[in-house]
Amino acid sequence: MKLLKTLSLALTMSVTPALSQAKDDAKSNPFAQRAADIQSELIELRRDFHRHPEVAGEEVRTAQKVADYLDGLGLEVTTDIGGHGVIGLLKGSKPGKTVVWRADMDAMHSDEPDPVSFKSGIEGKRHICGHDVHTTIGLGIAKVLSERKAELAGNIYFLFQPAEETLHGAQAMINDGALDLMHADEIYGAHVSPLQVGVISAKPNMVFADWHHLEIRFNGNENTAEITALIDQIIAGQLRTNTDIQLWKPENYLHPEYGVANPNTVYKDYLLLSQSAKTRDTNQQLSIRTAFLTTNTDDLETVIIDLKAKLAKSPYADRLININASQRVPAVTNNEELTRASRAYLLNLGDNTEIGTHYGVLPFMTDDFAYFQQKIPGVYFFLGGSNFQQGVIAAPHTPNFQVDESAIEIGVRTFAALLSERAQR
């Protein structure tokens, strides 16, 4: 817990210079009061999801509650898309664009004690990534918007995605026709983050680093240690940073002076080796696997060319079979125009939400929201969920993960306003 408090303090300090308070003369958020009115209802809904966590592929109860809720609002509901995915359509009364709000639903495996009073009722499973909050916010947005349907333009889809934690759900929904159903112009989503509650952040272009995997296969399984060391050496020679700082450490990427929220961050251009090469012997063949993180998508080709050239000059040249590259999931990459337009609108919304930005690319695994962004221009936001004064730290995938539930009201009022604005032509 001490480490998490330290990291959160660093994040708070690093984000503060980039924040911009809404202008005093800005227009008021038309959804703020209604979001406040239904906050207690939404908190109970979130706590119900939290008590009944369902991991990827098992989101039966969650999906049913989501579908029932949307149906009760009068939305057109489609279920069982890409597994347990649910899509609800809210049709506005005026011509406009088609925009999508995505929320993920699945929980995670965890044997750590649940620190909240509304504890998980399923042993070994918990919501420690905030998807219970994401699902609730999505439903809250649908509710406040549906109540003002006569004022809305365009079509607003609410996409509730299963299996984000396994990075399979988004592609499964796409394969099952989700995009063909929606014909969307824009897509938006948000993830709970360790930011202080009341802060929302987004940046244009790449948000998370590209994570590439390489498999290098050789005939025979002799000289395993020597070949593995050579692969590590070649990859290490391609590493690129402009600093001696260990970029993968949380205390560094949250640092106020050179972390991701500082305009002068050291996280703008790098290629990092994420792990040492791993070996596997199969049928008299040696398979060596390694991975790296990069902010430049051209690095993959460069690394492969270098590997082939140096292995061709090595004692193992005649044993090389092939080099295969793979990417478990692409990097979340925000559309530049939509990000700037969205931030500009939110800065002028005038509901006391602080709109921040970050400048660096985060050096860890991405979100499969990226698959939707490959097909539809979109923006991925970070929603503050921590309350440092109360010791509530919303650091996903950590044992003591908690969320200040006022983030629900903030998410509903802010993103309801944004979606209604973006749906207007």
From TrEMBL:
InterPro entries: Amidohydrolase, Peptidase_M20. It comes from the Bacteria. This is Peptidase M20. Mn(2+) 1 binds at residue 397. Mn(2+) 2 binds at residues 129, 131, 165, 191. GO terms for molecular function: hydrolase activity; metal ion binding. Residues 1-22 form the signal peptide. The Mn(2+) ion enhances activity. The lineage of its organism: Bacteria, Pseudomonadati, Pseudomonadota, Gammaproteobacteria, Arenicellales. Gene3D superfamilies: 3.30.70.360, Zn peptidases. Keywords: Hydrolase, Manganese, Metal-binding, Signal. Its cofactor is Mn(2+).
